Amino acid sequence: MSLAGRRVLLGVSGGIASYKSCFLARLLVEAGAEVHVVLTAGAEAFVGHVTFEALTGTPVIRSLWEPGQALAHVRVPKAVDLIVVAPATAHLLARAAQGLADDLLTTMLLATTAPVLLAPAMNDDMYAHPAVRGNLATLRSRGARIVGPVSGALAEGPSDRPGRMSEPAEIVRHAVRALAGGGPLDGKRVVVSAGPTREAMDPVRFLSNRSSGKMGYACAEAAWQRGADVVLLSGPTALPAPDGMRVERIDTTAALADAVRRELPEADVLIMAAAPADFRPAVSMPVKRPRASGPLTLELAATDDILLGTRDARKPGAVIVGFALETGDAVTKGRDKLARKALDLIVINDALEAGAGFEVDTNRVTLLDRAGGVVEVPLQSKAGVAEAILTAVEHQVDAQTAVSRATT
Questions:
Q1: Arithmetic mean of pLDDT, 107-118
Q2: C-alpha dihedral sign at 65, 71, 72, 74
Q3: How far apart are CA 27 and CA 24, in angstroms?
Q4: How confident is the model at residue 332 (pLDDT cuts 50, 70, 90)?
Q5: pTM check: above 0.85
Q6: How far apart are CA 276 and CA 251, in angstroms?
Q7: Given this model, what pLDDT does residue 217 score?
Q8: 3-state SS track over the chain
Q9: Rounded average pLDDT over 213-237
Q10: Per the residue annotation, which of 123, 135, 209, 349 is the catalytic one?
């Protein structure tokens, strides 16, 4: 998650969660941002300004009345790319919603034209209060982005209701997305499939494969961070559902095919990173067959090819991305699939190559596009590979947009 070259104003208001804002400041700096911190008087009761100056390397502005800073309340918010308020207490949210300018931070919120990201944090009963929910609705209607809160431990004890501030890494993730506006995927509907499917032999056993879903989830995350409206169609995985996108859990290849067909009419991009089973038991037994019954012979039937089945249902101008995991001669086989399935882009890798394929955190792929372009993506993390894939997708989106404009 890169914020290289970006200037971020971090506003910290007076709640116990302000200690986590120290970690947030550090993560923003590590992501490449130039971070300027504004503390409210309440925040300074919890965390001192020297801590933030040490973490960010920039002086902390603490008051409207600091000598030499007479215009800081206007100058600073106009010079930053993003304002993040974490924690955003109930008191801060109320003042911001009313448009008050009674301290440095609220004044800066009025003076900025940059995106604003708020991370609420408070007691769970306070967060549930209609006044707080109304203030958040008002701020959303004015364009503010909200991350969290989540359930979990509060200062007064554990809670299963929201109130706890989102973790710093999650706030950084939303900050990256907030600054992604204007790119080729901004506001586009991107549908990503991920993980394996399961084909039942009986109520207990199934046929599947070794897909972990990591590559598909990384692609969904990369698309989301670039501003896309992401729908993730996930087979059975151990991965947590990413925040900010719609996740639909599926089990069988047929269920995945149905989900893809439902999403296609609105999909600007379809990334088929899932590894659906190619075969299923011809007959699924209604009860578990005990081992004592002796040897078992299974008759297998081919499942439907999902991408082939989408050719007539695709949205005009949609970018369709396939994956080809092969064992030997992967590029030749992938090129055949690119043409046969009428894809815009195909991601090819070899399951036998060390460090690539299933059940690992790295991958090495070759990208082929329908115009004959070839991109070799070296072995790296699947997150890094996903960034390369989404960059190639953006090129395809740009090309489709150019064609559409030329024909109109």
A1: 91
A2: positive
A3: 5
A4: confident
A5: no
A6: 10
A7: 95
A8: CCCCCCEEEEEECCCCCHHHHHHHHHHHHHCCCEEEEEECHHHHCCCCHHHHHHHHCCCCECCCCCCCCCCHHHHHHHHCCEEEEEEECHHHHHHHHHCCCCCHHHHHHHHCCCCEEEEECCCHHHHHCHHHHHHHHHHHHCCCEECCCECCCECCECCCCCCECCCHHHHHHHHHHHCCCCCCCCCCEEEEEECECCEECCCCCEECCCCCCHHHHHHHHHHHHCCCEEEEEECCCCCCCCCCCEEEECCCHHHHHHHHHHHHHHCCEEEECCECCCEEECCCCCCCCCHHHCCCCCCEEECCCCCHHHCCCCCCCCEEEEEEEECCCHHHHHHHHHHHCCCCEEEEEECCCCCCCCCCCEEEEEEEECCCCEEEEEEEEHHHHHHHHHHHHHHHHHHHHHHHHHHC
A9: 94
A10: 209
Query: Is the per-residue pLDDT at 31 higher than 60?
Result: yes
Give first-to-last CA distance, the chain, whole Å: 37
Q: Give every CB contact of residue 395 below 8 A, 6+ residues apart in sequence.
A: 369
Is 209 considered catalytic here? Answer: yes
Decide if pLDDT at 179 tops 60. Answer: yes
More confident residue, 11 or 3: 11
> pLDDT > 90: what percent of the chain?
48
Which residue has 């994956």 as its token pair? 323
Tens of pLDDT along 4-17? 889 999 999 988 99
d(CA 187, CA 271): 16
Check pLDDT > 90 for residue 401.
no
Tokens representing 271 are 């990334």
Question: What domains, with CATH codes, occur in the chain?
Answer: 7-178 (3.40.50.1950), 189-283+299-407 (3.40.50.10300)
